[in-house]
C-alpha cells in the first residue's frame, strides 16, 4: 500500500539540515554517503530543512521509493541539529515529533528490560 509507514522496521532521523530541494534520488544517495546505511532496507528516513517547518520522509516499499512531504502551517518541528549524524528513533518518538514535541521526553516512561528470576 502506498506510504504504509507502519511496515518500517526502523526509523532514522537525519540530524542537522538537509537541502529539501532534493528529490528521491538525492535523498536516497544521501543515506549511504552521510550515514553509511542502506536506503533499500525496510527503514524510514526523515529529513528536515533549515526553517524546521517542513520534513521529507523516504521509504523503500520493495518496488519503489515513497517520498512524503509535510509542511507545518504554524509552529516548527523540534529537530536535533548535530550535523552529519543519524539518530535511530522509536515509533513513539516519531509521533512526538509529528505532534511538535521534542523526541526526548524526560517525563516519559523508559522501556525496561525484564529481570531474570533464578
Automatic annotation (TrEMBL):
Q: Which InterPro entries match?
A: Transposase_IS66_Orf2
Instruction: Please give the name of this protein.
Output: IS66 Orf2 like protein
Organism whose genome encodes this protein: Acetonema longum DSM 6540
Amino acid at each position: 500500500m502506498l506510504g504504509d509507514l507502519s511496515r518500517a522496521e526502523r526509523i532514522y532521523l537525519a540530524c542537522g539540515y538537509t537541502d529539501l530541494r532534493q528529490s528521491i534520488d538525492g535523498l536516497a544517495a544521501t543515506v549511504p554517503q552521510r550515514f553509511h546505511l542502506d536506503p533499500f532496507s525496510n527503514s524510514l528516513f526523515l529529513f528536515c530543512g533549515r526553517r524546521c517547518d517542513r520534513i521529507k520522509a523516504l521509504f523503500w516499499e520493495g518496488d519503489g521509493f515513497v517520498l512524503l512531504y509535510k509542511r507545518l502551517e504554524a509552529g516548527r518541528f523540534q529537530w536535533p541539529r548535530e550535523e552529519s549524524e543519524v539518530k535511530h528513533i522509536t515509533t513513539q518518538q516519531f509521533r512526538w515529533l509529528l505532534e511538535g514535541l521534542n523526541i526526548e521526553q524526560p517525563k516519559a516512561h523508559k522501556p525496561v528490560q525484564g529481570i531474570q528470576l533464578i
